[in-house]
Amino acid sequence: MEKKRRIRVAIDGPGGAGKSSVAREVAKRRGLIYVDTGAMYRAVGLFVARRGIASDDAEAIIECLPEIDIAFIPDGDRGVMTLCGEDVGGQIRTPEASLYASAVSQIPEVREALLDMQRKFASGGGVVMDGRDIGTVIIPDAELKLFITASPEVRAKRRFLELEEKGTPQPYEEVLADIIKRDKNDSERAIAPLRPAEDSIVFVNDEYDLEQTICYVLGLIDATDHIYGRKS
Ligand code: DC
Questions:
Q1: 16 CA distance to ligand 1 centroid (A)?
Q2: Distance 99 CA to ligand 1 centre (A)
Q3: Which of 145, 158, 210, 222 is the most buried (most CB within 10 A)?
Q4: Alpha-carbon gap, residue 155 to 53, rounded angstroms
Q5: CB-based contacts of 134: which residues, under 8 Å, 6+ apart?
Q6: Which of 18-27, 62-71, 146-155, 222-231 has the least mean pLDDT?
Q7: pLDDT(232) > 90
Q8: 110: number of CA atoms within 13 Å, CB side?
Q9: 130 C-alpha to center of ligand 1: Å?
Q10: What's the mean pLDDT in 90-113?
Q11: Is 163 domain-assigned?
Q12: pTM
């Protein structure tokens, strides 16, 4: 019997486009493993912030890299992010952690330190990975590459509502300013800048809600599986 090749799905895009919610949910519905690479940068950012190091002090950040013991333990569509053995899932989502994550992700040494870990997850297949450079750098040969995006205003509105729901409201103007700043950091950095891979499918979801985006991606996963899923 032919053996099924296990699909690797790479989902990139700017913050607030709903990538991780989509990636997690499609992983759950298709029995794939979800790997959150942004959480890895966030954990590095948290470590640096806790040390009291300024987010732009690249030299000090590089110096403490050997001490940063992070692990992502995949668990179906969830996954646990640990920093030096501590589950930091609840602490890496604050606005401060977001800005720190974006700052540390511009340092080539930080990216290099996370590269092997990310590729190892992809090597077995059966994964959905989301980030900024998954389709361009980490697994450029992924069976399915997607770039999910929306306008800054739409993304800010979604994040604003999310923060309000979580009981940690922030003024809309501030949320929008943070998004614009992160977009600039992520897309203008010298190394692995945020951009769609040439052969990725770009989906602008301004007009679509989460469930519609999920359905669109599920359709692509199923079609990809159908076409490429069997070894020749
Ligand atoms: O996806 P996220 O918002 O959790 O990512 C946090 C930060 O990490 C984001 O500002 C950019 C960076 N990042 C990256 O540079 N490359 C990745 N593959 C994932 C995230």
A1: 11
A2: 10
A3: 145
A4: 29
A5: 10, 11, 12, 37, 118, 142, 145
A6: 222-231
A7: no
A8: 30
A9: 9
A10: 91
A11: yes
A12: 0.90
| Pocket lining: 107 vs ligand 1, CB cutoff 6 Å | no
Protein residue whose Cα sits closest to atom 2 of ligand 1: 38
In terms of residue numbers, what domain contains 27?
Answer: 8-228
Helices (H), the chain: 19-30, 37-50, 58-64, 95-104, 108-123, 152-165, 172-188, 210-228
Rg, the chain, Cα only: 17
Ligand 1 pocket member 155 (CB < 6 A): no
Cα of 132 to ligand 1 centre, how many Å? 6
For residue 130, pLDDT over 80 is answered with: yes
Residue with tokens 């668990």: 75
- 213 falls within a domain: yes
Does residue 3 carry a pLDDT above 80?
Answer: no
